[in-house]
Specification:
About 65% of the residues lie in helices and about 0% in strands. By secondary structure, it is mainly α. Helix 3 runs antiparallel to helix 4, helix 3 runs parallel beside helix 5 and helix 4 runs antiparallel to helix 5.
């Protein structure tokens, strides 16, 4: 156990901690506690401090929403085609299918563009933009494959 050096005349010695006083057989003395301020409370912002990044990416969010709209358009297209087939409107099924496919393609391509711009922004998080870009690109690819299946089928069947 280490002992403190004897106090020098004219200097004030800080009181020992309560646990040390109890070990030495002295009753603990009441001391006013001084709480240290956290470093974030005393830190002053510097002039060259970089600004905080925003929490979200609005362009990426719109890209995700456009992917959802494109998926809903596909669902509506399926219902419209089913209703047309049930009502013997076979002639209108092709036109409705083409119209919904083009609408889905335009919406998903807009989502791809917004997702790319959202990824290129340095001042925003990129996760939502990447999700929107991926979803819209997948939808656009599936619509293009569906649109190309008609001429491919015509070529193959002669």
């Amino acid at each position: 156990m280490t002992h403190l050096p004897p106090p020098q005349p004219g200097s004030q010695q800080p009181a020992a901690p309560a646990w040390q006083q109890a070990q030495q057989g002295q009753p603990p003395q009441a001391q006013p506690q001084q709480l240290a301020q956290p470093s974030w409370a005393t830190a002053q912002p510097s002039a060259d401090a970089s600004p905080q990044r925003p929490r979200g990416n609005p362009l990426g969010l719109v890209s995700v929403l456009l992917a959802a709209v494109a998926l809903l358009l596909g669902l509506v297209a399926a219902v419209v085609q089913a209703v047309l087939i049930a009502s013997n409107g076979f002639e209108a099924v092709g036109a409705a299918s083409l119209a919904f496919s083009l609408a889905r393609l335009l919406v998903s391509l807009a989502g791809v563009a917004l997702g790319v711009v959202g990824l290129l922004r340095r001042d925003a998080r990129r996760t939502v933009a990447a999700i929107g870009l991926g979803a819209c690109a997948a939808i656009a690819a599936s619509v293009l494959i569906g649109l190309l299946s008609v001429p491919i089928t015509a070529i193959v069947t002669g």
